[in-house]
Design brief:
Blueprint lengths: L1 H13 L51 E8 L1 H4 L14 H17 L1 E8 L6 H10 L7 E3 L2 H9 L21 H7 L15 H4 L2 E6 H6 L6 H6 L4 H8 L18 E6 L14 E3 L6 E3 L4 H15 L5 E4 L9 H7 L3 E7 H8 L6 E4 L13 E3 L4 E2 L7 H31 L4 H12 L1 E3 L1 H5 L8 H8 L6 H24 L3
Parallel strand pairs: 1-2, 1-3, 5-8, 5-9, 11-13
Antiparallel strand pairs: 3-12, 4-9, 4-10, 6-7
Helix pairs in contact: 1-3, 1-13, 1-14, 3-14, 4-5, 11-17, 12-13
Length: 497
Amino acid sequence: MKRTAAWLLTLCLALPLLSACSDGGENAETLPASPEPAAQAQTAEDAPETEPDLPDDVPGADYEGYAFRIGASNENNADYLHYLWVEEMNGESVNDAVFAANTYVRDKYNVDLVWAEVGDTHYNMYQHVVNSVHAGDDAYDCAVLHDHASVNAMLEGVLLNLYELPAVDTSKPWWPAFTVDALTVNGKLYFDCSYMKYDALASTRAVFMNQGIAEELNLTIPYDMVREGTWTMDVMRDMSSKAYIDVNGDGVKDAGDRYGWAISGHTYDYMEGFGTDIYKHADDGKSLYLDFYTDYNLKIITQSCEWFFGGGNDVWFDGSGSNKENVGALKMFAEGQSLFSYNSVIRHVRSCADADMTYSILPQPKLDETQTVYYGGTNDHPAVVPVTCSDYDRTGLILESMAWAGKKNIEPAYIEVAMKTRYSSDPDSAEMLGMIFQNRLVSAGYYYSNLDTISMAHDVFWMKGGAQPEIASWYKSQEKLELKRVEKINKFFADGE
Protein backbone atom coordinates (compact mmCIF):
# COMPACT_ATOMS: atom_id res chain seq x y z
CA MET A 1 0.00 0.00 0.00
CA LYS A 2 2.93 2.33 0.57
CA ARG A 3 3.68 2.18 -3.15
CA THR A 4 0.05 2.96 -4.01
CA ALA A 5 -0.17 5.79 -1.48
CA ALA A 6 3.06 7.30 -2.72
CA TRP A 7 1.77 7.16 -6.26
CA LEU A 8 -1.50 8.79 -5.31
CA LEU A 9 0.38 11.63 -3.68
CA THR A 10 2.04 12.14 -7.03
CA LEU A 11 -1.34 11.88 -8.74
CA CYS A 12 -3.03 14.56 -6.72
CA LEU A 13 -0.06 16.85 -7.00
CA ALA A 14 0.30 16.24 -10.71
CA LEU A 15 -3.19 17.10 -11.78
CA PRO A 16 -3.82 20.61 -12.88
CA LEU A 17 -6.76 22.68 -12.15
CA LEU A 18 -9.54 21.21 -14.30
CA SER A 19 -12.92 22.24 -13.98
CA ALA A 20 -36.39 29.28 -5.96
CA CYS A 21 -34.63 31.55 -3.43
CA SER A 22 -35.33 32.83 0.07
CA ASP A 23 -36.53 36.41 0.03
CA GLY A 24 -34.14 37.06 2.94
CA GLY A 25 -36.76 39.03 4.85
CA GLU A 26 -39.61 38.34 7.21
CA ASN A 27 -40.68 35.27 5.27
CA ALA A 28 -37.36 33.48 5.76
CA GLU A 29 -39.18 30.78 7.75
CA THR A 30 -40.80 29.62 4.51
CA LEU A 31 -38.68 26.89 2.97
CA PRO A 32 -38.74 26.99 -0.82
CA ALA A 33 -37.35 24.08 -2.74
CA SER A 34 -33.71 24.42 -3.70
CA PRO A 35 -33.11 22.22 -6.70
CA GLU A 36 -29.54 21.14 -7.27
CA PRO A 37 -27.72 22.72 -10.21
CA ALA A 38 -28.89 21.62 -13.63
CA ALA A 39 -26.35 19.05 -14.77
CA GLN A 40 -26.15 15.83 -16.68
CA ALA A 41 -25.20 12.78 -14.65
CA GLN A 42 -21.71 11.79 -15.71
CA THR A 43 -19.55 8.77 -15.20
CA ALA A 44 -15.86 8.29 -15.76
CA GLU A 45 -16.64 6.82 -19.16
CA ASP A 46 -18.27 10.14 -20.12
CA ALA A 47 -15.25 12.18 -19.07
CA PRO A 48 -13.35 13.56 -22.03
CA GLU A 49 -9.93 12.16 -22.78
CA THR A 50 -7.09 14.62 -22.57
CA GLU A 51 -6.53 16.05 -26.01
CA PRO A 52 -3.31 14.51 -27.36
CA ASP A 53 -2.83 17.62 -29.47
CA LEU A 54 -3.83 20.85 -27.77
CA PRO A 55 -2.92 23.56 -30.25
CA ASP A 56 -1.26 26.60 -28.77
CA ASP A 57 -3.09 29.51 -30.34
CA VAL A 58 -1.93 32.02 -27.73
CA PRO A 59 0.15 34.59 -29.65
CA GLY A 60 3.87 34.76 -28.92
CA ALA A 61 6.09 37.80 -28.23
CA ASP A 62 9.62 38.73 -27.23
CA TYR A 63 9.80 40.55 -23.90
CA GLU A 64 13.60 40.71 -23.84
CA GLY A 65 14.25 38.90 -20.58
CA TYR A 66 11.53 40.65 -18.56
CA ALA A 67 11.21 39.31 -14.99
CA PHE A 68 7.55 38.34 -14.56
CA ARG A 69 7.06 38.56 -10.79
CA ILE A 70 4.71 36.14 -9.03
CA GLY A 71 3.90 37.35 -5.52
CA ALA A 72 3.38 34.61 -2.94
CA SER A 73 3.71 34.00 0.77
CA ASN A 74 6.61 31.90 2.03
CA GLU A 75 4.35 30.17 4.56
CA ASN A 76 4.56 26.36 4.60
CA ASN A 77 7.48 26.35 2.19
CA ALA A 78 5.56 28.53 -0.27
CA ASP A 79 2.86 25.89 -0.61
CA TYR A 80 0.48 28.00 -2.72
CA LEU A 81 3.26 29.01 -5.10
CA HIS A 82 4.30 25.48 -5.96
CA TYR A 83 0.99 24.80 -7.64
CA LEU A 84 2.16 26.97 -10.55
CA TRP A 85 5.90 27.57 -10.19
CA VAL A 86 8.97 25.54 -9.21
CA GLU A 87 12.60 26.56 -9.18
CA GLU A 88 14.21 23.54 -10.81
CA MET A 89 13.74 19.95 -11.93
CA ASN A 90 14.24 17.29 -9.26
CA GLY A 91 13.13 14.05 -10.92
CA GLU A 92 9.63 14.06 -9.43
CA SER A 93 6.93 13.88 -12.09
CA VAL A 94 4.81 16.67 -10.62
CA ASN A 95 7.63 19.07 -10.01
CA ASP A 96 9.10 18.39 -13.44
CA ALA A 97 5.77 18.79 -15.22
CA VAL A 98 5.34 22.22 -13.61
CA PHE A 99 8.91 23.07 -14.52
CA ALA A 100 8.27 22.03 -18.12
CA ALA A 101 5.20 24.28 -18.27
CA ASN A 102 7.18 27.20 -16.83
CA THR A 103 10.06 26.58 -19.24
CA TYR A 104 7.74 26.64 -22.23
CA VAL A 105 6.41 30.06 -21.22
CA ARG A 106 9.87 31.41 -20.47
CA ASP A 107 11.12 30.36 -23.88
CA LYS A 108 8.05 31.50 -25.79
CA TYR A 109 8.12 35.04 -24.41
CA ASN A 110 11.80 35.42 -23.49
CA VAL A 111 10.85 36.13 -19.89
CA ASP A 112 11.94 34.89 -16.51
CA LEU A 113 9.27 33.74 -14.07
CA VAL A 114 10.41 34.78 -10.59
CA TRP A 115 9.01 34.53 -7.08
CA ALA A 116 8.37 37.87 -5.36
CA GLU A 117 8.53 36.49 -1.83
CA VAL A 118 6.34 37.84 0.97
CA GLY A 119 7.04 36.73 4.52
CA ASP A 120 3.51 36.57 5.87
CA THR A 121 0.62 34.15 6.18
CA HIS A 122 -1.35 33.03 3.15
CA TYR A 123 -4.45 34.80 4.43
CA ASN A 124 -2.68 38.11 5.02
CA MET A 125 -0.89 38.09 1.68
CA TYR A 126 -3.75 40.11 0.18
CA GLN A 127 -2.86 43.05 2.44
CA HIS A 128 0.57 43.26 0.85
CA VAL A 129 -1.07 43.60 -2.55
CA VAL A 130 -3.39 46.30 -1.19
CA ASN A 131 -0.51 48.19 0.44
CA SER A 132 1.61 47.91 -2.69
CA VAL A 133 -1.09 49.37 -4.91
CA HIS A 134 -1.97 52.16 -2.49
CA ALA A 135 1.71 53.08 -2.32
CA GLY A 136 1.84 53.28 -6.09
CA ASP A 137 4.33 50.41 -6.30
CA ASP A 138 4.43 47.92 -9.14
CA ALA A 139 5.56 45.00 -6.98
CA TYR A 140 3.87 42.05 -8.67
CA ASP A 141 2.72 41.08 -12.15
CA CYS A 142 0.39 38.61 -10.47
CA ALA A 143 0.01 37.29 -6.94
CA VAL A 144 -1.31 34.06 -5.44
CA LEU A 145 -3.83 34.74 -2.67
CA HIS A 146 -5.96 32.86 -0.17
CA ASP A 147 -9.31 32.18 -1.81
CA HIS A 148 -11.64 34.08 0.52
CA ALA A 149 -9.09 36.76 1.34
CA SER A 150 -8.67 37.51 -2.35
CA VAL A 151 -12.17 39.05 -2.26
CA ASN A 152 -10.94 41.52 0.35
CA ALA A 153 -8.37 42.74 -2.14
CA MET A 154 -11.04 42.93 -4.83
CA LEU A 155 -13.29 45.06 -2.63
CA GLU A 156 -10.37 47.41 -1.96
CA GLY A 157 -10.34 48.12 -5.69
CA VAL A 158 -6.74 46.97 -6.20
CA LEU A 159 -7.38 44.04 -8.57
CA LEU A 160 -7.79 44.12 -12.32
CA ASN A 161 -10.83 42.62 -14.03
CA LEU A 162 -9.19 39.82 -16.02
CA TYR A 163 -11.51 40.43 -18.97
CA GLU A 164 -9.61 43.70 -19.47
CA LEU A 165 -6.55 41.68 -20.48
CA PRO A 166 -6.92 41.24 -24.27
CA ALA A 167 -5.33 37.76 -24.35
CA VAL A 168 -7.58 36.23 -21.69
CA ASP A 169 -10.18 33.96 -23.29
CA THR A 170 -12.17 32.01 -20.72
CA SER A 171 -13.93 30.04 -23.45
CA LYS A 172 -10.71 28.11 -24.05
CA PRO A 173 -10.35 24.58 -22.64
CA TRP A 174 -7.61 25.71 -20.27
CA TRP A 175 -10.18 27.74 -18.34
CA PRO A 176 -12.47 25.33 -16.42
CA ALA A 177 -16.08 26.43 -16.71
CA PHE A 178 -16.93 25.54 -13.11
CA THR A 179 -14.62 28.24 -11.76
CA VAL A 180 -15.38 30.85 -14.43
CA ASP A 181 -19.14 30.43 -14.03
CA ALA A 182 -19.04 30.52 -10.22
CA LEU A 183 -16.82 33.58 -9.88
CA THR A 184 -17.88 35.79 -12.81
CA VAL A 185 -20.49 38.40 -11.87
CA ASN A 186 -21.82 41.09 -14.21
CA GLY A 187 -19.20 40.21 -16.80
CA LYS A 188 -16.32 40.73 -14.37
CA LEU A 189 -13.81 38.19 -13.15
CA TYR A 190 -10.98 39.05 -10.76
CA PHE A 191 -9.63 35.58 -9.98
CA ASP A 192 -7.47 33.43 -12.24
CA CYS A 193 -8.46 29.85 -11.46
CA SER A 194 -7.30 28.51 -14.81
CA TYR A 195 -5.17 25.46 -15.55
CA MET A 196 -2.08 27.51 -14.72
CA LYS A 197 -2.54 26.07 -11.22
CA TYR A 198 -3.74 22.71 -9.97
CA ASP A 199 -4.58 23.13 -6.31
CA ALA A 200 -8.33 23.01 -6.99
CA LEU A 201 -7.74 19.43 -8.05
CA ALA A 202 -5.60 18.53 -5.05
CA SER A 203 -8.18 20.18 -2.76
CA THR A 204 -11.12 18.20 -4.14
CA ARG A 205 -13.05 16.41 -1.39
CA ALA A 206 -13.56 12.67 -1.47
CA VAL A 207 -14.39 9.73 0.79
CA PHE A 208 -11.64 7.23 1.58
CA MET A 209 -12.61 3.72 2.72
CA ASN A 210 -10.41 1.25 4.60
CA GLN A 211 -10.50 -1.96 2.59
CA GLY A 212 -9.25 -4.11 5.46
CA ILE A 213 -12.08 -3.06 7.78
CA ALA A 214 -14.59 -3.49 4.95
CA GLU A 215 -13.39 -7.04 4.37
CA GLU A 216 -13.55 -7.82 8.09
CA LEU A 217 -17.17 -6.60 8.17
CA ASN A 218 -18.09 -8.39 4.91
CA LEU A 219 -18.89 -5.05 3.27
CA THR A 220 -18.68 -4.67 -0.48
CA ILE A 221 -16.76 -1.60 -1.62
CA PRO A 222 -19.61 0.41 -3.20
CA TYR A 223 -18.05 1.02 -6.63
CA ASP A 224 -21.05 -0.50 -8.39
CA MET A 225 -23.44 1.54 -6.26
CA VAL A 226 -21.66 4.68 -7.43
CA ARG A 227 -22.00 3.55 -11.04
CA GLU A 228 -25.69 2.83 -10.49
CA GLY A 229 -26.30 6.12 -8.66
CA THR A 230 -27.37 4.43 -5.38
CA TRP A 231 -24.38 5.41 -3.22
CA THR A 232 -26.15 7.70 -0.71
CA MET A 233 -25.62 9.00 2.81
CA ASP A 234 -28.07 6.42 4.13
CA VAL A 235 -25.97 3.62 2.63
CA MET A 236 -22.78 5.08 4.09
CA ARG A 237 -24.47 5.41 7.47
CA ASP A 238 -25.60 1.79 7.39
CA MET A 239 -22.09 0.59 6.60
CA SER A 240 -20.61 2.90 9.22
CA SER A 241 -22.92 1.55 11.93
CA LYS A 242 -21.23 -1.85 11.77
CA ALA A 243 -17.67 -0.70 12.44
CA TYR A 244 -17.47 0.54 16.04
CA ILE A 245 -15.19 -1.33 18.46
CA ASP A 246 -14.36 -0.24 22.02
CA VAL A 247 -10.69 -0.94 21.41
CA ASN A 248 -9.39 0.00 24.85
CA GLY A 249 -12.31 -1.67 26.62
CA ASP A 250 -13.05 1.27 28.91
CA GLY A 251 -16.73 1.45 27.97
CA VAL A 252 -16.31 5.05 26.85
CA LYS A 253 -16.48 6.43 23.31
CA ASP A 254 -13.09 8.10 22.88
CA ALA A 255 -10.26 8.70 20.44
CA GLY A 256 -8.76 5.29 21.22
CA ASP A 257 -11.65 3.35 19.68
CA ARG A 258 -12.51 2.33 16.13
CA TYR A 259 -15.36 4.04 14.28
CA GLY A 260 -17.34 3.91 11.10
CA TRP A 261 -16.44 7.48 10.21
CA ALA A 262 -13.86 9.85 11.66
CA ILE A 263 -14.34 13.45 10.56
CA SER A 264 -12.88 16.76 11.67
CA GLY A 265 -14.47 20.08 12.39
CA HIS A 266 -13.72 23.01 10.09
CA THR A 267 -14.38 20.75 7.12
CA TYR A 268 -14.68 22.69 3.88
CA ASP A 269 -16.85 21.97 0.84
CA TYR A 270 -19.18 19.47 2.50
CA MET A 271 -22.38 21.21 1.42
CA GLU A 272 -20.97 21.90 -2.04
CA GLY A 273 -20.50 18.15 -2.38
CA PHE A 274 -24.29 17.90 -2.54
CA GLY A 275 -24.45 20.36 -5.44
CA THR A 276 -25.61 23.39 -3.49
CA ASP A 277 -24.30 26.91 -2.90
CA ILE A 278 -25.53 29.62 -0.52
CA TYR A 279 -24.96 32.36 -3.12
CA LYS A 280 -26.69 31.95 -6.46
CA HIS A 281 -26.40 33.98 -9.65
CA ALA A 282 -29.39 35.99 -10.82
CA ASP A 283 -30.79 34.89 -14.16
CA ASP A 284 -29.16 37.79 -15.97
CA GLY A 285 -25.77 37.06 -14.34
CA LYS A 286 -25.44 40.62 -13.07
CA SER A 287 -25.77 39.95 -9.36
CA LEU A 288 -25.80 37.34 -6.61
CA TYR A 289 -28.50 36.54 -4.09
CA LEU A 290 -28.57 34.67 -0.79
CA ASP A 291 -30.11 31.22 -1.07
CA PHE A 292 -29.31 29.45 2.18
CA TYR A 293 -32.61 28.85 3.95
CA THR A 294 -34.05 26.05 1.82
CA ASP A 295 -35.35 22.56 2.49
CA TYR A 296 -32.37 21.05 0.72
CA ASN A 297 -29.72 22.93 2.71
CA LEU A 298 -31.48 22.40 6.03
CA LYS A 299 -31.72 18.68 5.33
CA ILE A 300 -27.96 18.51 4.81
CA ILE A 301 -27.30 20.09 8.20
CA THR A 302 -30.02 18.34 10.21
CA GLN A 303 -29.26 14.92 8.76
CA SER A 304 -25.55 15.19 9.53
CA CYS A 305 -26.10 16.52 13.06
CA GLU A 306 -28.57 13.80 13.92
CA TRP A 307 -26.11 11.21 12.66
CA PHE A 308 -23.04 12.62 14.38
CA PHE A 309 -24.59 13.55 17.72
CA GLY A 310 -27.77 11.53 17.99
CA GLY A 311 -26.46 8.96 20.46
CA GLY A 312 -24.86 6.47 18.11
CA ASN A 313 -21.25 5.49 18.44
CA ASP A 314 -20.24 4.99 14.80
CA VAL A 315 -18.96 8.55 14.16
CA TRP A 316 -15.99 10.17 15.86
CA PHE A 317 -16.19 13.93 15.43
CA ASP A 318 -12.91 15.68 16.05
CA GLY A 319 -14.10 18.91 17.62
CA SER A 320 -10.61 20.38 17.81
CA GLY A 321 -11.31 21.88 14.40
CA SER A 322 -8.06 20.53 13.00
CA ASN A 323 -8.26 19.81 9.30
CA LYS A 324 -4.61 18.99 8.69
CA GLU A 325 -2.90 15.73 7.90
CA ASN A 326 -1.29 13.56 10.58
CA VAL A 327 -3.55 14.84 13.35
CA GLY A 328 -7.12 14.31 14.48
CA ALA A 329 -9.54 12.39 12.29
CA LEU A 330 -7.13 12.06 9.37
CA LYS A 331 -4.53 10.51 11.66
CA MET A 332 -7.15 8.11 13.04
CA PHE A 333 -8.04 6.95 9.54
CA ALA A 334 -4.39 6.47 8.60
CA GLU A 335 -3.91 4.37 11.73
CA GLY A 336 -6.86 2.10 10.93
CA GLN A 337 -9.31 3.56 13.43
CA SER A 338 -12.14 4.29 11.01
CA LEU A 339 -13.86 2.68 8.07
CA PHE A 340 -14.46 6.02 6.31
CA SER A 341 -12.76 9.40 6.15
CA TYR A 342 -13.73 12.60 4.35
CA ASN A 343 -11.30 15.33 3.39
CA SER A 344 -9.30 16.66 0.46
CA VAL A 345 -7.51 14.16 -1.74
CA ILE A 346 -4.10 15.64 -0.99
CA ARG A 347 -4.56 15.62 2.78
CA HIS A 348 -5.75 12.04 2.72
CA VAL A 349 -2.82 10.75 0.75
CA ARG A 350 -0.28 12.73 2.75
CA SER A 351 -1.68 11.22 5.93
CA CYS A 352 -1.75 7.72 4.47
CA ALA A 353 1.59 7.86 2.64
CA ASP A 354 3.30 5.63 5.23
CA ALA A 355 0.22 3.79 6.47
CA ASP A 356 0.16 0.01 6.43
CA MET A 357 -3.32 -0.16 4.94
CA THR A 358 -5.20 -0.37 1.66
CA TYR A 359 -7.92 2.12 0.89
CA SER A 360 -10.50 2.83 -1.78
CA ILE A 361 -11.50 6.26 -3.04
CA LEU A 362 -15.18 7.15 -3.48
CA PRO A 363 -17.16 10.29 -4.26
CA GLN A 364 -19.04 12.00 -1.47
CA PRO A 365 -22.36 10.12 -1.30
CA LYS A 366 -25.51 11.69 -2.65
CA LEU A 367 -27.84 13.19 -0.08
CA ASP A 368 -30.47 10.86 -1.53
CA GLU A 369 -31.26 9.30 -4.88
CA THR A 370 -33.03 12.42 -6.16
CA GLN A 371 -29.58 13.96 -6.56
CA THR A 372 -28.45 13.14 -10.09
CA VAL A 373 -24.70 13.86 -9.97
CA TYR A 374 -21.83 13.01 -7.63
CA TYR A 375 -20.05 16.28 -6.92
CA GLY A 376 -16.59 17.03 -5.64
CA GLY A 377 -16.56 20.25 -3.67
CA THR A 378 -13.25 22.07 -3.85
CA ASN A 379 -11.53 25.39 -3.27
CA ASP A 380 -8.79 27.20 -5.13
CA HIS A 381 -6.25 29.87 -4.31
CA PRO A 382 -6.39 32.23 -7.27
CA ALA A 383 -3.80 34.26 -9.07
CA VAL A 384 -4.77 37.93 -9.25
CA VAL A 385 -3.45 40.92 -11.18
CA PRO A 386 -2.96 44.25 -9.37
CA VAL A 387 -4.32 47.38 -11.07
CA THR A 388 -0.73 48.64 -11.20
CA CYS A 389 -0.25 46.29 -14.16
CA SER A 390 1.84 48.28 -16.62
CA ASP A 391 1.37 46.14 -19.73
CA TYR A 392 -2.02 44.50 -20.27
CA ASP A 393 -0.88 42.65 -23.40
CA ARG A 394 2.20 41.16 -21.76
CA THR A 395 0.47 40.10 -18.55
CA GLY A 396 -2.50 38.61 -20.36
CA LEU A 397 -0.35 36.66 -22.81
CA ILE A 398 1.85 35.20 -20.09
CA LEU A 399 -1.06 34.20 -17.86
CA GLU A 400 -2.96 32.70 -20.79
CA SER A 401 0.11 30.81 -21.94
CA MET A 402 0.76 29.52 -18.42
CA ALA A 403 -2.80 28.19 -18.39
CA TRP A 404 -2.31 26.49 -21.75
CA ALA A 405 1.06 25.03 -20.73
CA GLY A 406 -0.40 23.78 -17.44
CA LYS A 407 -3.14 21.89 -19.21
CA LYS A 408 -0.79 20.61 -21.90
CA ASN A 409 1.96 19.40 -19.56
CA ILE A 410 0.40 18.49 -16.23
CA GLU A 411 -2.98 17.03 -17.12
CA PRO A 412 -1.52 14.47 -19.56
CA ALA A 413 1.05 13.47 -16.94
CA TYR A 414 -1.81 12.58 -14.64
CA ILE A 415 -4.25 10.98 -17.04
CA GLU A 416 -1.86 9.13 -19.32
CA VAL A 417 0.84 8.12 -16.85
CA ALA A 418 -0.54 8.22 -13.33
CA MET A 419 -4.13 7.10 -13.73
CA LYS A 420 -3.87 4.77 -16.73
CA THR A 421 -0.52 3.14 -15.98
CA ARG A 422 0.78 3.55 -12.48
CA TYR A 423 -2.63 3.12 -10.85
CA SER A 424 -3.70 0.08 -12.83
CA SER A 425 -3.62 -1.98 -9.61
CA ASP A 426 -6.89 -0.30 -8.58
CA PRO A 427 -8.78 0.77 -11.71
CA ASP A 428 -12.02 1.15 -9.72
CA SER A 429 -10.63 3.96 -7.55
CA ALA A 430 -9.10 5.52 -10.65
CA GLU A 431 -12.55 5.51 -12.23
CA MET A 432 -14.06 7.05 -9.10
CA LEU A 433 -11.44 9.81 -9.15
CA GLY A 434 -12.24 10.54 -12.76
CA MET A 435 -15.90 10.92 -11.87
CA ILE A 436 -15.16 13.17 -8.89
CA PHE A 437 -12.86 15.44 -10.86
CA GLN A 438 -15.31 15.69 -13.75
CA ASN A 439 -18.00 17.17 -11.48
CA ARG A 440 -16.15 19.56 -9.19
CA LEU A 441 -17.69 22.72 -7.76
CA VAL A 442 -16.17 25.95 -6.50
CA SER A 443 -18.51 27.87 -4.22
CA ALA A 444 -19.35 31.48 -5.02
CA GLY A 445 -20.79 31.61 -1.52
CA TYR A 446 -17.50 30.63 0.09
CA TYR A 447 -15.55 33.23 -1.87
CA TYR A 448 -17.95 36.16 -1.58
CA SER A 449 -19.79 35.64 1.72
CA ASN A 450 -18.77 36.49 5.26
CA LEU A 451 -16.14 33.95 6.25
CA ASP A 452 -17.03 31.06 8.59
CA THR A 453 -20.70 31.98 9.01
CA ILE A 454 -23.43 30.90 6.61
CA SER A 455 -20.91 29.63 4.06
CA MET A 456 -19.75 27.11 6.69
CA ALA A 457 -23.13 26.56 8.35
CA HIS A 458 -22.69 22.79 8.55
CA ASP A 459 -19.45 23.27 10.47
CA VAL A 460 -21.02 25.85 12.79
CA PHE A 461 -23.55 23.28 13.97
CA TRP A 462 -21.10 20.40 14.05
CA MET A 463 -18.94 22.43 16.42
CA LYS A 464 -21.99 23.13 18.58
CA GLY A 465 -22.48 19.37 18.83
CA GLY A 466 -26.27 19.14 19.07
CA ALA A 467 -28.33 16.41 17.40
CA GLN A 468 -31.20 18.85 16.75
CA PRO A 469 -29.68 22.08 15.47
CA GLU A 470 -31.60 25.31 16.05
CA ILE A 471 -31.05 26.59 12.54
CA ALA A 472 -33.97 29.03 12.33
CA SER A 473 -32.91 31.24 15.24
CA TRP A 474 -29.27 31.10 14.22
CA TYR A 475 -30.12 32.09 10.67
CA LYS A 476 -32.16 35.04 11.94
CA SER A 477 -29.09 36.21 13.84
CA GLN A 478 -26.95 35.98 10.71
CA GLU A 479 -29.34 36.99 7.95
CA LYS A 480 -29.07 40.77 8.20
CA LEU A 481 -25.28 40.68 8.19
CA GLU A 482 -25.19 38.32 5.23
CA LEU A 483 -27.68 40.37 3.22
CA LYS A 484 -25.46 43.41 3.79
CA ARG A 485 -22.56 41.39 2.45
CA VAL A 486 -24.55 40.44 -0.66
CA GLU A 487 -25.46 44.08 -1.15
CA LYS A 488 -21.81 45.11 -0.83
CA ILE A 489 -20.67 42.50 -3.33
CA ASN A 490 -23.38 43.40 -5.83
CA LYS A 491 -22.66 47.13 -5.51
CA PHE A 492 -19.02 46.47 -6.27
CA PHE A 493 -19.84 44.52 -9.42
CA ALA A 494 -22.46 47.08 -10.51
CA ASP A 495 -20.15 50.08 -10.15
CA GLY A 496 -18.79 51.37 -13.43
CA GLU A 497 -21.60 50.03 -15.60
